[in-house]
């Protein structure tokens, strides 16, 4: 390897782990860019403010922890990440996991799991695993997102209707629905009206004034009406008390063998879900902006953000699709807008934290109900169900497992099913085409008629299982047996091994197997699996086969 090549590879590796903030500043960051980022950051902060508190409450923790997560995690994701427009913070996708974690191991356990997840994400980025996480099949992401939407909506039913449950709200959706139904007689009509009015205001403002901050307008209006009229509904203040004005002093979570073992399963789930959610959000931002994110440094940044969030008492941080899309639409020029959005939320805590006590929980439940409806990807779900049996199976199984079993299980099983569907389709795409076959070869062993077959498509273990039997039947008679590899871009070890076995079968009957038109990488795989000369003869084309036959 020459010096120039080494320098190019080194530069590529350095760029792969360079935060986008550095790239943007190197390109030249002007006052005009800063003004655009200030406006975009303020717009995103207005959206993030009520969402952060609503997601935290739905996750079973105090609203202040949602703000800590947005301030610390959001700032670090933008400052260190590999996407120009990524906005980090608490995400609705984590509600069920965080809620289950809090119920099982408490707030301290949640903070430790978040801390460990941050370390795992940094390792994943350093090992360049972000490149592979992006390959999760589309039906899996749609089924997963739809399942999360159902879980979020179910988690808001208690506050949406103002129900009084007999005991703690169950985490499993079947038990949750049963508990909610059992408490149907405790519906608070005022709370339900507040929730409906909030939903109506969110949708109405979005339709009539798309540029206005509909979420904040709806929440502020609901809080004002409830406070002025003295309506008997539960608020943030009545359940959680007053919000602090500043994040706490950073502290390392208590680490012991028992605590780590208890938090480890949740940390792994946070890591997997966080990696998928953040890279999916970055891909969405790429599609909207025409830019290209750096997946591995993005994972490293997500890891640092989760560690930072845990140190300040926050919980899971990930890239958030809705807020990232808002950032792009608001005219962001780069990561500075995401950093500013975190500072704007911090400014809210400093100035207006006491006012949050007046926000009705029913209004936040209505807000999350709208979020769940918007994230369900209903059109995409039904399009996949109708497109093919394979896609329908993957999206439905993923959806059902996420809703009724476990998020991680849904992703893993969906990914495996998606892989099987892909293998089946690629196997069907591989073909064997007869180019020259004698009508009726004789069995006497003296017939040297040349038989030529052409392969089309990748020849891997799936295709080998189907096409191998075809090639075996062709090789029943001794002859010059030619397989044209000109249209084979790839062969794996299983496919190569099948040709080594085929060559032995042809040789036992006195024939010779010729492989023509093999690409260098294909030939290397064949040779590695025993398909080497003289057992197999390689030739550039049929003229080479004729010359070899003449020499025999």
How do the strands and helices of this protein lay out in sequence?
Elements: H1 3-16, H2 20-27, H3 31-58, H4 63-80, E1 88-89, H5 95-126, H6 130-133, H7 138-155, H8 157-161, H9 173-182, H10 189-208, H11 214-229, H12 236-240, H13 257-289, H14 295-311, E2 318-319, H15 321-329, H16 335-352, H17 361-375, H18 378-387, H19 389-404, H20 407-429, E3 431-436, E4 450-456, H21 461-474, E5 480-487, H22 493-508, E6 512-516, H23 520-528, E7 536-539, H24 542-551
Parallel strand pairs: 4-5, 5-6, 6-7
Antiparallel strand pairs: 1-2, 3-4
Main location: membrane
Transmembrane segments: 38-59, 66-87, 93-123, 135-157, 177-203, 215-233, 263-285, 343-373, 393-423
Subcellular location: Membrane
Short description:
With 552 residues, this protein is an alpha/beta fold. It is built from 24 helices and 7 strands. It has 2 domains: 3-22 and 31-391, no CATH class; 430-551, STAS domain (Transcription Regulator spoIIAA, 2-Layer Sandwich).
